[in-house]
Design brief:
This is 3'-5' exonuclease. With about 220 residues, this protein is α/β, with parallel strands linked by helices. The chain is about 35% helix and about 15% strand. A five-stranded mixed β-sheet has the order 3-2-1-4-5, sandwiched between helices.
Length: about 220
Amino acid sequence: MLWFKKKKYPVFWNDYLKKFKTSQPKSIENTRFVVFDTETTGFDTLIDRILSIGAVSIYNNIIDVSNSLEVYLKQDEFKAKTVEIHGILKEGNLLKISENEAIEQFINYVGNAVLVAHHAAFDIEMINNALKRLNFPKLKNKCIDTGILYKKLDGKKESLISLDVLCDEFNIPKHDRHTASGDAFITSLLFLKIISKLKQERYVHYSDLFRASNNNGLI
């Protein structure tokens, strides 16, 4: 007879899982959103590694800048050519922690919040691959891509649109662009501006935020 033992996870992961056992609010105002961004050594989600993670919380349409996360990871995989983009040196003066510590801090910070990112699939995959290397399952959080959310606006059908272009369209200053914390804050402003504009166009239900279809998904 085969006996299967339940895998034992550390306390932080068990606490994370417990947060999904209670029902969550189904309104935009009562939902905690965590807008996040990763800076990486490149764009190959299997080979490249996370250099930094930045995140900020939104609740009741307010960005809580006092409750944010910014971590830098030790660079076992270093690509000098990407320093021109993110400015993160292999050594430098920044306090850097291990991938394990960074992921634990991220998981503790996000809890069961709805994750928000621009071109979110990439950032989610980078986090999930880091979790896989540490022998953890994938993230359980719901996720919203601001690029997809933007296409729900009337007349917007672009397949892919950059964060820089949307910053210009919505008059969002690009301070600290290409830093994880800076991009997370910029994306949080974009997220709120898109939702505000959607509400001007039509009634928006919580569930509409997660529909992948274009304008037809909104009531």
